[in-house]
Amino acid sequence: MLDKTIDIFTARMKEIVLKDQKMTTIPLGYLMSLEIPDSLKHFFSQEVEIWIREEEEKFESERFDYDQPEVRMLIDQIFDYLQQNAVFDLAKFNHLLERAIKLELNYIVKPHRTLSQFIFRNSDRVSTMEVYDTLKYFFKFEYYKNAISDYFNTKYLREINHDQFIDLIEQIDEKAFEDNRLETTLKTVKSIMAAVGEARQEEVKKLAVEVLYDAMSDRKLDDYTDLLEKVKYETETTELTFSEIETLFRDHKLPGGEAVTEEKSESAFIYEDMETSAPAVNVESIDVKESTMELDLKDEEAEDEFEEEIAVEDERPKTNVASDLADYVAKQISSDSPLEDLNGLIVGRTRRKIIKKLFRKNEQDFVNFLDLLNKESSWKIASKIIDDEFYEREVNPYSKEAISLSDIIYLRFFPKDKYVGEQSDTSKFD
Predict the structure, then answer these.
(1) What is the pLDDT of residue 421?
(2) Cα 346 to chain centroid, rounded
(3) pLDDT tens across 141-177, in order?
(4) Backbone dihedral region for residue 201 (phi beyond 0: left; psi -120 to 50: alpha; all else: beta)
(5) How far, in whole angstroms, is CA 4 from its chain's centroid?
(6) Distance CA 243, CA 246 (A)
(7) Residue 395 near residue 402 (C-beta atoms within 8 A)
(8) Residues 6 or more apart from 20 whose CB is under 8 A from it?
(9) Phi/psi class of residue 362: alpha, beta or left (left: φ > 0; alpha: ψ in -120 to 50)?
(10) Of 119, 105, 118, 96, which is closest to residue 48 (Cα–Cα)?
């Protein structure tokens, strides 16, 4: 269900953004002017912020003092201008749009997992200011933001690690659900259904059992997760109405028993959603555990040796990965050649870092993964393969290496932009 919703949402956003079919680049300012969700606008805006920070890092020199106030002022003016006039090429826009929509919908269903992965995508410890900045990506379930902010202020925290954050967000939901567990759970279900309906621009009357299971499991609502497991394995039901969900959670009745009528379960529709009720979480009694992370010195030494090995191997004329990929895409656009073997696209330092970080230095597993992808001609199927591989390997899909790998694979499937001149047809998703 979520994949179908992502497809419909993505097609609709492309129809809005690419209404001028001759567009080959998408200016950030143009995106900001459109009637698209604020979460998507923020995602693209933050992508440009990342570009700016990467460019700023280049202004370091032993010869010149770039921190002089006059120089800094001019540099800031340059970057302000560049940010206001930033553009995305079509392939980059399409991939970022898909990534932004996946992030938003994954957060709606699995906020604990999504927040912890996205906030700690590049480090196991971050400043509380970084957490605040990352929370700006998300515009639903505001009580998480409020409670996290209150906790940081109450405890005067300046930084937090991954384990502590997971502990914190689990305790926040314990507090949010403790007063009226059933009612709060049903409000959460209504919020999820409303978000899916908003994405699809239609009233959603049923929710997939798999989506419900993920939502309950992520929030550690184990009693409801157990009930949904029974639905999955003891019935042939794949979707549930809100009335059926209420009956299941309240009375522990599996679908297929006594029919649930709208008249018999009018109470199901008096519940507000979580956006309307906005539960206040008292953080005074929350106290996250101390870090359980310990550095394994042997592992650290092995990592250092591996990095040194890479450094020695790379003492040769440097190539720019982004430039190489751009050249490859340009060649593909000007030809009708078949999709390239990914083994030829992912090479050198990039390949070694991906094998090291994502495949635990197992090159054969990585080769098998690429062989599987090379057999596919559809990005949609390839994307699912990538997601499944990351999930099985417990890889953070928002880490630098995971994003880099996904970007390269994406370019294999879209050497030409297939959306120019095409009208989005959402009927095919019905």
Answers:
(1) 36
(2) 23
(3) 999 999 999 999 999 999 999 999 999 999 999 999 9
(4) left
(5) 16
(6) 5
(7) yes
(8) none
(9) beta
(10) 96
